[in-house]
Amino acid sequence: MLFQPPVFETIFLTPVEHRLVIRGSRSRGAPLDGVCWYHDEFDVTGALVARYETYDETDEAGQERCGWRRYDAGGRLVARHEVAMRWSALVALKQSRRGAEIALQRLGAHNTSAPLARRVLPAGTWRPDIVPAA
């Protein structure tokens, strides 16, 4: 079976009137193994609403995980969600890609009132932190 990445709009609960644009992805091999995707979300006026980092990886200790982080337009981490297995294992567990996407949504994550991290960068210099997931 070919690797099928998630439908990111489903995971992020992107409103249909918004546009989600992939900015790039990175993969790496042993001893760490994984892939990371970067997306920008724009509203109907074209204004940046959020940035996302989504990952599917095995870390240095051999622990598997997949998840995402959402940053507001100012670069502050406002939501994140992670599960302790690789994407392919989550798809197998949920018996469908759609079921796995729903498991990664963590409904209500976008309604976070207080930022999880206080990190503001000058406009145009955003890049995601590689931080331990909760």
Describe the structure.
The protein has 134 residues and is an alpha+beta fold. The protein has one domain. It has three helices and five strands; from the N terminus they run H-E-E-E-E-E-H-H. Strands 1-2-3-4-5 form a five-stranded antiparallel sheet. The longest helix is centred in the C-terminal third of the chain and has 9 residues, at 97-105.
Kindly report the spatial arrangement of strands forming the biggest sheet.
Answer: 1-2-3-4-5
Estimate percent helicity: 10-25%
Envelope shape: globular
Helix segment tally: 3
Radius of gyration: 15 Å
Descriptors for this entry?
single chain; 134 residues; alpha+beta; five-stranded antiparallel beta sheet; 5 strands; disordered C terminus
Write the layout of secondary structure elements.
Blueprint: H1 8-12, E1 19-28, E2 33-42, E3 48-58, E4 64-72, E5 77-83, H2 87-94, H3 97-105
Antiparallel strand pairs: 1-2, 2-3, 3-4, 4-5
Helix pairs in contact: 2-3
How do you describe this structure in short?
By secondary structure, this protein is of the alpha+beta class.
